[in-house]
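pinging the channel bc i need a second pair of eyes. not urgent but kinda urgent?? the chain im working w is below, pasted from the shared doc
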Amino acid sequence: MRAVSQATFQQLSEAPDTPLLDLASNDYLGLSRHPVVVATAQAAAARDGVGAGGSRLVTGTRPVHMELEAELAGWLGRERALLFPSGFQANLAAVLALADRHSLVIADRLIHHSLLTGVAASGARLRRFAHNDLAQLEHRLSEARRARPQQRLLVLSESLFSMEGTSPNVPALAALCERFGAALLLDEAHALGVLGPGGRGLGHGAGSIALISGTFGKAFGSGGAFLAGGELVMEWLLQSSGAFRYTTALAPPLAAGALAALRLIQRRESHAAAEGDGSTPALPDLLKRARRWRDGLEAAGWPRPAGEGPILPLLVGSDGRALELQSQLEAAGLLAVAIRPPTVPEGTARLRLVLRADLPPGTLERLLSALGRP
């Protein structure tokens, strides 16, 4: 979002007199308030303290950290996982592990700012390709290999782009990188728990992906982040990553909450497998509902939000129109935030609508009524 004044920030931070129905947060599965997740985090705080008190390699490691890393790696089909206090740190560490000043990084034009910060810190040269345009990526990779056959190449993309709601063809993306000998770093922050087999993300099963990054602050309803990959790259991260070594470890209650959420997601997957062939995501109903929301918005005359997941960007164009709709929805008891430049390109201001599994029935009808006609 655009930078705001202190007065505006205070206004946004103050709770309204009447509670608003949240259509903006990334708590896709509603797990941040799930009684099991909350109780597990509370028990960890009582047992291990609110904070870890030190870095992982000094005094910060608790059994729950190692348990979460092991279960997460197994669930994702990766050899190893490492926890980080934030997704920004995880992405910074991932890029620095895979690129240096001799590398060429080829990135989707809409990748997250944390990944761009990692590229800048690495000293690598950066080239972009148009959003989810694998043909242009292939051209960039071919061009790079012809120019410098031995150069280290790194490709950066996301499996679900947070402001667009769109996803690349991840198997094709991974195959393309493998063909040209380029490492692929895939940010799965918004897809985990929601997309892919059992909610494992769209990169699941693509063993050629060098690193998967993800967060617990979205579908897992907790906080913190992780990187997952093969033994060699993960050991390199452990030994060399300042973002891992020189920061206080993830708070034990957050790690415990994330572990509880992971087990709930796995339980839902097992339940779905018992009722069907096990090939559907952990919460297929959420994706069906997302399709119904897109259909409803389109039928009401609004531009159909791109993608298939729970992020539904409603493009309105001008900053003023986006802010007007935000206020209009707030007056109707709905919270949806206007996203404006520089977060998105000029002329593409939008309402970022987020569908959650715990929204009450009739929410779509309430939204359409509050929006009115385009």
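so Residues 252-275 form the longest helix (24 residues). and DSSP finds 14 helices and twelve strands in the chain. — does that match what u expected or am i reading it wrong
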